[in-house]
Amino acid sequence: MGSSAIKRAKEGYPWVRRGFLIGLGCVAALYSLVLVVRALQQPEEMDQAAQNVLRALVAGDAATLMNYVSQEEREATGLDESSLKELIDRVFLPAFEGCKLVRTERYDPPAPIPHQYFLTGEFECKDGSTVAVSADVEAGDRPVCGSLTYGLVCDALTAYARRAHPELEDLDSDVGRSKARHVARYKAYRDLKPVFKSLRLKKVWLPATLTRRALSWDELEERLRRCAYDHQ
C-alpha cells in the first residue's frame, strides 16, 4: 500500500507542477495588465503632447488634433473633426505648400506662462524663405492646446503673407517685427477672406493670454486690423 501511494504521488507531480506554472503565468499576466492600465492612466507629458500636436498639424491629422482641443473651445466654436479638417485642408496646408519641416525647438516666451509648454517647428520653403508653426499645450487633467483654431489661423496667415506680400521686408528684422507681422496677417486675411467666410467653422477661440472667448470671422478681421494699424 505504501508503494502504491508513492507511485501515485510520482504520477501526480507533473500535474501539480503544471498547475503551479499556469498559476504563475496568470499572476504575471495580471501584473503586466496592471502596469499597462497604470501607464495609460498617467497624464501625457507636456513635451510629448506638443510634439504630437505639431506632427498632426504637418500631417493634416484632424482626428489626432481633436484629442488636444479643450472642451471649452469645442463648445464655444462648434469645432468638430470635420470642420477642423476643412480648416486645415483649405487654409493651413496650402499656406505651407512647398515647405518642409527641418527642425523643432522649445520656445520660452519673454514673460513665462505657468503650466504651458511652447514648441516651434521651422519650415524651409522652395523659394528660400522660412516659416514657423507653433504648438502650445496647457497642463491639466490632460494636456490641451490653449487655442488650436486661433494659433492655426495666425500661423497660416503669417506663412501666406511671406509669399503674397514680399514688400513687408522687415518681417524678419528686429525693428518693427511685431508690427510687420500684424500688418502681414491682416493683409493675408483680406486676401483669404472669401475662403474663411465659406468654411463650416464660424468662430475661433482666443487663448488665455487674450482673454478666453470666441470670435467670429468678422470680429477676427477687426482684431487683426486694430493690431496692424491702430496705435501707430
Summary, kept brief:
By secondary structure, the chain is α+β, with helices and mostly antiparallel strands. The chain is 57% helix and 16% strand. Helix 5 runs parallel beside helix 6, helix 6 packs across helix 7 and helix 7 (177-198) packs antiparallel against helix 8 (217-229).
Q: What do these coordinates show?
A:
The chain has helices at residues 2-41, 46-59, 62-66, 71-77, 81-95, 148-164, 177-198, 217-229; strands at 99-106, 116-125, 130-138, 144-145, 203-206, 213-216. The protein has 232 residues and is α+β, with helices and mostly antiparallel strands. It has eight helices and six strands, in the order αααααββββααββα. Strand 2 (116-125) and strand 3 form a beta hairpin. It is globular. The strands form two sheets. A four-stranded antiparallel sheet has the order 1-2-3-4. It has a two-stranded antiparallel ribbon with strand order 5-6. Mean pLDDT is 82; it is low at 34-40.
Give the structural class.
alpha+beta
Helical proportion, percent range: 55-70%
Strand content: 15-25%
Number of strands: 6
Work out the oligomeric state of the chains in this entry.
Answer: single chain
Question: Using only CA atoms, what is the Rg?
Answer: 27 Å
The main sheet orders its strands as 1-2-3-4
Task: Please give the count of helices.
Answer: 8
Largest sheet at a glance? 4 strands, antiparallel
| Unreliable stretches covering 5 or more consecutive residues | 34-40
Q: How many angstroms separate the termini?
A: 109 Å
Set out the fold topology.
Layout lengths: L1 H40 L4 H14 L2 H5 L4 H7 L3 H15 L3 E8 L9 E10 L4 E9 L5 E2 L2 H17 L12 H22 L4 E4 L6 E4 H13 L3
Antiparallel strand pairs: 1-2, 2-3, 3-4, 5-6
Helix pairs in contact: 5-6, 6-7, 7-8
